[in-house]
Amino acid sequence: MTKNKQRIQRMTLAAFFAGIEVLMAFTPIGYIPMAGLSITTMHLPVILAGILGGPAFGAGLGFVFGMTSLIRATMEPSVTSFVFSPFITVGGVSGNFASLLICFVPRILLGVLSGYLYRLFLRLMHKSVPAAALSAVINTVLHTAGVLGGIYIFFGPQYASALGTGMQGLVVLLLGVVSSNMVLEAILAGVVIPVLVRALAPSAVRMGLMERTA
Questions:
Q1: DSSP bridge pairs for 33
Q2: Are 173 and 181 in contact (CB under 8 A)?
Q3: How much is the mean pLDDT over the chain?
C-alpha cells in the first residue's frame, strides 16, 4: 500500500472516529446524568483511537471529546456547567481558564496515555487483548481522577455550593463517583476495548497505524 493511500485512509479513520465521538456527545449514548455528574461512554472511542492509531491519534480524539464537553456545557448549561465552560455563569459563579484545563487536559491525556500504555503492556505481555484491557482500565481510572481532581482543586467550594452541599458533602459525592461511576466505566472499557481492538487491529495494521501483534 502506498504512503499516500495510507495517509488518506488514516484521515478517513480520524474523521470516522471524530464523527462517532460527536454523535455520542449529543445523544443519550454518550452521557447518563447522575447527581451533578455523568456516567460516560465518551472515553471508549478515545481509548480505542490511542491504541489503534498511537498517542498522537488518541490526543486528537481526546481534543474532540474535550470540545464536545465545552460545547455541551455552554449550549445546554446546568448548575455545574461552569466547571467545563469559561463562558457560563451560574449563581454568580463563572467558569474561567481552569474550566478549559478540566475540559481538555484529562481528555487529551486519555488518548495519549492509552497509546503509550498499550504499547508498553504489549511489549511486556506480547498479547494485544490483555494489553488493551489493562490500558483501557488504567486510563479510564486516570481520566476520571483527572476530571474530579480538577473540579475539587479549582472549583471545590463553588461546586459544592451549586449542588447544595458543603465541602464534606462534596468529598462524599466524589468518593461515591469513584466507587460507582468510575468502576462501571472502567469495567465497560476493560470489556469493550479488547473486543474492538481484536476486530479492528487487522485494518489498523494495513493502514500502517499498528504493528502486527498476537
A1: 38
A2: no
A3: 89
